UniProtKB/TrEMBL annotation:
This is Type I-B CRISPR-associated protein Cas5. GO terms for biological process: defense response to virus; maintenance of CRISPR repeat elements. The keyword Protein transport does not apply. Keywords: Antiviral defense. It holds the Pfam family Cas_Cas5d. NCBIfam families: cas_Cas5h, CRISPR_cas5.
């Protein structure tokens, strides 16, 4: 399968966890549903009525994500101001319709993305924009204030390897459902987070999955049901199981 490889990095990132409310926490990696928005921003798919989800979704796009710098998080207060009239005005505050929310951010997030798009015209458009270091809309890491930079790495062929018993090193994050057994190594920090995996144009989530990763970006040694490998021996696991492509 032909795969576009590019890096995305920023000074800050925030991908709000679905269960955090008054003090937003962030996921450690780019959620798949947010990744669809990043692809839409690069090639210029509109957000009106979630148009981009019609073209880039779990059925049309496959992706793998590799952590390139250790996951670091910090918290700081964001000053929120009511800009929609005087609908909300705190009664106990002299300063008016504003409040400060303590928010968790990723610090210096840096990921390597492996992408394949079924629709060839869209895929070639994406390759062209990434190679030229261009995007139609500003690319960000979750929030519009977290502007991101995208750099082309390569266009490579990856081959599918079905695997039932061999322990291999996987450089990307791994959906837990593909892991048969995990080889725990000293000095590594293993984490698991639960993400929305499938979302429709009405932004209704129909599937959630748990994803394993090593917090410093080291490879994970595991037995997985299948993986994809390039000529250099780099092994990744795509988030979606499109094995027949």
């Amino acid at each position: 399968m032909n795969v576009l490889v590019f890096d995305i990095r920023a000074d800050f990132g925030h991908f709000r966890k679905i269960y955090s409310t008054s003090s937003p926490l962030t996921y450690s990696i780019i959620p798949p549903t947010s990744f669809f928005g990043i692809l839409g921003a690069i090639i210029g798919l509109g957000k009106e009525e979630n148009e981009y989800l019609r073209y880039v979704n779990h059925e049309t796009v496959n992706m793998a994500i590799r952590i390139m710098s250790p996951v670091r998080k910090m918290r700081m207060g964001l000053n929120h101001v009511n800009t929609k009239g005087n609908i909300w005005v705190p009664k106990q505050r002299r300063e008016g319709a504003r409040t400060q929310i303590r928010t968790e951010f990723l610090r210096f997030p840096h990921f390597r993305c492996y992408v394949h798009v079924k629709e060839q015209s869209l895929f070639h458009q994406l390759i062209d924009y990434v190679q030229q270091h261009r995007s139609v809309y500003t690319v960000c890491m979750g929030l519009s204030e977290c502007i991101a930079d995208v750099h082309y790495v390569s266009l490579e062929e990856f081959r599918l390897v079905n695997n039932n018993a061999e322990t291999v090193s996987i450089v990307s994050v791994i959906p837990e459902k593909y892991v048969t057994s995990l080889c725990i190594e000293s000095g590594k920090e293993y984490r698991k987070e639960r993400f929305a995996f499938q979302i429709d144009e009405e932004r209704i989530v129909s599937d959630y999955e748990e994803v394993l990763f090593e917090a410093s970006g080291e490879a994970i040694r595991a037995v997985v049901s299948h993986y994809w490998e390039n000529k250099a021996g780099e092994r990744i696991v795509f988030l979606y199981d499109h094995r027949k492509e």
